[in-house]
Amino acid sequence: MGIPFSVYILIVVALISYFVLNHTTFGRKIYAVGGNDVATELSGISSKKIKMAAYAISGLTAALAGIVLASMNQQAISKAAAGYENDVLTAIVVGGTSLMGGEGSLQGAMFGALLVGMINNGLRLMGIPSTYHSVVKGIVIIVAVAIDAYSRYKNSGLQRNRTPARKKCNPSA
């Protein structure tokens, strides 16, 4: 059908991840440990086991991504994915995952990855030198983190009332 096999792998892994994170107790425990591992320990969940399992799954998906990248490049060298960490960080932050942990969604990460791909493609099509690509992605990260920090601050109830209280005038005095 003209669709690369790597897209099928992406869809299968995304569907499995979505199901595990949103419809199993293991997924809820992962979100809980990401939000506050001390609180999950106090509630009876072994955060060490959850972290070990999460790192093992992360390693498995990283190995799968390495296999897909090696098959696309038709060579397996250690520096094949050098520079992708900036793209991944940009995709995750733009997708709504908090750098503080405990928040985020697979849909947001997929949206972020799509947006980063569009940014990369747009920068190439506009003929912008590749040395400036990381600068643009850095600006996108800074804006996304600033928006996240502002929304956390606004929803925390810690902001001040910027308008001073008006003094009541006593007309009889």
Taking pLDDT < 50 over at least 5 consecutive residues as the criterion, the unreliable ranges are none
Oligomer: single chain
Q: How much of the polypeptide forms β-strand, as a percent range?
A: under 5%
Rounded Rg: 22 Å
Tell me the domain tally: 2
Report the biggest beta sheet as strand number plus sense, adding barrel if it closes: none
Secondary structure tally: strands: 0
Count of helical regions: 7
Terminal Cα separation, in Å? 86 Å
Order of helix and strand elements from N to C terminus = HHHHHHH
What would you call the structural class? mainly alpha
What level of helicity do the residues show?
55-70%
Mean pLDDT across every amino acid position = 80
Cα shape = flat
Set out the fold topology.
Layout: H1 5-23, H2 25-35, H3 37-42, H4 47-73, H5 84-94, H6 106-125, H7 133-156
Tell me about this structure.
- The structure is a single chain.
- This protein is mainly α and 173 residues long.
- The chain has 2 domains: 1-80; 83-157, no CATH class.
- Helices cover 68% and strands 0% of the residues.
- It contains 7 helices and no strands.
- The chain has helices at residues 5-23, 25-35, 37-42, 47-73, 84-94, 106-125, 133-156.
- Helix 5 (84-94) crosses helix 6.
- The radius of gyration is 22 Å and the shape is flat.
- The chain starts with a helix and ends in a 17-residue tail after the last helix.
- The mean pLDDT is 80.
